[in-house]
Amino acid sequence: MQTTLKLIAAHAHSTGATDLNVIELANDADPRTLKLEGIERIDLNFPKFTDGRAYSQAFLLRRRLGFKGEIRATGDVLIDQLVQMQRSGFDVAVLRADQNLDFAQRQFDRFQAFYQGDAVTVQPHFLTGVAA
Fold first, then answer.
1. Is 42:70 a contact under the CB 8 Å cutoff?
2. CB under 8 Å to 127, separation ≥6 — which residues?
3. What is the pLDDT of residues 41-80, one digit of tens each?
């Protein structure tokens, strides 16, 4: 499986890029209240790796609101979360400082296909090739 989720080391991430229209969204905020016109990137925060509200925010932004810009995971981002982040609609993940980029890449080799649809591949695997 080719990784489409870009991985960034914590030390290489800068908040609020000056050349982009960036929103940093708290994980308890409702994405449906945002005005997305002109927004190029939305940073969704994981304050703790056990708090998964940003997955729901990413899914809402991608599937229901049709956001086409970059969705970036920040905060307490661990290697174990990366595949689900990609499936939820994230484009970029900023890994926590103690996480290894090389090990992170291996996660995508371990999980190469999924039966059910997701935010990226909407049609479930069992319907592939079936006429609608």
1. yes
2. none
3. 999 999 998 999 999 999 999 988 999 999 999 999 998 8
pLDDT in tens, 79-123: 889 888 888 899 999 999 999 888 887 776 765 655 455 556 555
Full-model pTM: 0.78
CB of 41 closer than 8 Å to CB of 72: yes
CA gap 75, 85 in Å, rounded: 13
Cα distance between the two ends of the chain: 26
Distance CA 7, CA 84 (A): 14
